[in-house]
Amino acid sequence: MKVFSEIGSYFLLMYRVFSRPEKSRIYWRQLLLEIEKLGIHSLGIVAIISVFMGGIITLQLTYNMSNPLMPTYLVGLGNRDTLILEFSCTVLSLMLAGKVGSNIASEIGSMRVTEQIDSLELMGVNSASFLILPKIIAVVFISPILFILSVFCGIIGGLIAGPLSGIVTVATYMGGIRTMFVPFFVTFSIIKTLVFGFLIATVPAYQGYNVQGGALEVGRASTRSVVNTSILILLADLILTQLLFK
Amino acid sequence: MIEIRNIKKSFEERPILKDISTLFEKGKTNLIIGQSGSGKTVLLKSIVRLIEVDEGEILFDGRDIRKMNFKDIKLLRQEMGMVFQGGALFDSLNVEENVQFPMDMFTTMTTAEKSKHVDFCLDRVNIKGAHHLYPSEISGGMRKRVAIARAIALNPEGEKGWVGNSTQVLFTRNKKLNEFVFASPLSKRIRDLKQREDDE
């Protein structure tokens, strides 16, 4: 029963979040701050992880496909499609659920326990909308950009690691990158990142908004938000893959 | 006038508010006094519906806040001011921005007007030269005074309702803030504040 109660509370919170803002100019300012805090500040970690993952995927493909019957350009192709289809959207979203999700849950949770949210409510401000809506828009907006950056960096990582292995050349790798490109894969992954972005913003926000107690509970809410968001991302991945590839 | 009729509130089967009825009349200073953990904060938060009570009526000039929808509650709350125990200042905003926040949200004042009004409000609580400091950079007492300045920002002359803080000092009435103020323990600080106010 508790699960249904939580789901109900989540949707009630979302109803409040998506109500009409009191003053759109203030929300706009908040949105820009959130884009900077949640998005721009994630660019570095996304780029670093993607370069390494692209390199590792390429090396794994290179060593596991060293068969004379298999053309070596498949290494580039495999790296590209792995990045586009799963790594740069799903795995990256799992990583963002940790970085961005815990940030959102702890920030809103701290505001709850220090009565800042009550203070907003007392002023007549819709605290749910004021605090959560800019975060949702920021994360949903920035997620596809991070996805594209991640694919690009992953391919660069492969380009560095592949030729270093001595099995695949730069020209062959690049040839593989350009072979059998399916534009729908990108569309599919962008749809996924939008859904994942929504989950990354809303689930931790829900956990933080409903914190009761003190610092310990804020920590627990932060942990819970990362776990729940990760599970929901994987569940959404399964459902979207089934729906969109049917 | 705020009238409370037979309100009850329990947390996990533990009754906190047991059939409380009282009347807070306009223009009178009211103190809510009690032991730590006796439910003063719960009562105050219940009055403004930050906590939902289990039973009873809470009437603001005859309007039952428990029967109001979200929109009406928002409008009613804009007539209130409340200072929380720790001040509840927004960590991400400096002193000036904290006091200016209600004006940003609910007025069409120009930047110059808001700035002047912020100075006025901060001056009333005797805060000088701290406009650009963040809550973490000022003392607890100053935080509380900034919170008072923020609470009166939309209503500096006290034409509208005014509710104070629960468990610690609550700002008492200024001679111009002729509305309700609730406070809790009979601390020395309350007496000092009242004394200061009376002296004014």
Describe the structure concisely.
The complex is a heterodimer of chains A (246) and B (200). Chain A is an all-alpha fold.
Write the layout of secondary structure elements.
The complex is a heterodimer of chains A (246) and B (200).
Chain A lengths: L1 H16 L6 H16 L3 H22 L8 H41 L2 H8 L3 H39 L4 H9 L4 H27 L5 H30 L2
Helix pairs in contact in A: 1-6, 2-6, 3-4, 3-6, 4-6, 4-7, 4-8, 4-9, 6-7, 6-8, 8-9
Chain B lengths: L1 E10 L2 E11 L4 E3 L8 H8 L7 E6 L2 E2 L5 H8 L17 H12 L4 H14 L15 H12 L29 E3 L4 H12 L1
Parallel strand pairs in B: 3-6
Antiparallel strand pairs in B: 1-2, 1-4, 4-5
Helix pairs in contact in B: 3-4, 3-5, 4-5
Number of beta-strand segments of chain B: 6
CATH architecture of the largest domain in chain B: 3-Layer(aba) Sandwich
Q: Give me the number of helical elements of chain B.
A: 6
Radius of gyration of chain A, in Å, reads 21 Å
Count the domains of chain B. Answer: 2
Largest interface comes to: A-B, 17 and 25 residues
Count of discrete structural domains of chain A: 1
Low-confidence stretches of chain A: none
Task: Report on this structure.
Chain A is an all-alpha fold. Chain A has one domain. Chain A has helices at 2-17, 24-39, 43-64, 73-113, 116-123, 127-165, 170-178, 183-209, 215-244. In chain A, helix 1 (2-17) packs across helix 6 and helix 4 crosses helix 7. Chain A starts with a helix and ends with a helix. Chain B is an alpha+beta fold. Chain B has 2 domains: 1-81 and 158-200, P-loop containing nucleotide triphosphate hydrolases (Rossmann fold, 3-Layer(aba) Sandwich), CATH 3.40.50.300; 87-154, no CATH class. Chain B contains 6 helices and 6 strands; from the N terminus they run βββαββααααβα. A 4-stranded antiparallel beta sheet of chain B has the order 2-1-4-5, covered by helices on one side. In chain B, strands 3-6 form a two-stranded parallel ribbon. The longest helix of chain B has 14 residues, at 111-124. The model of chain B is unreliable at 166-188 (pLDDT under 50). Chain A binds chain B through residues 16, 22-23, 26, 110-111, 114-116, 118-119, 121-126, and chain B through 45, 48, 50, 70, 74-78, 80-82, 84-86, 88-91, 101-102, 104-106, 147.
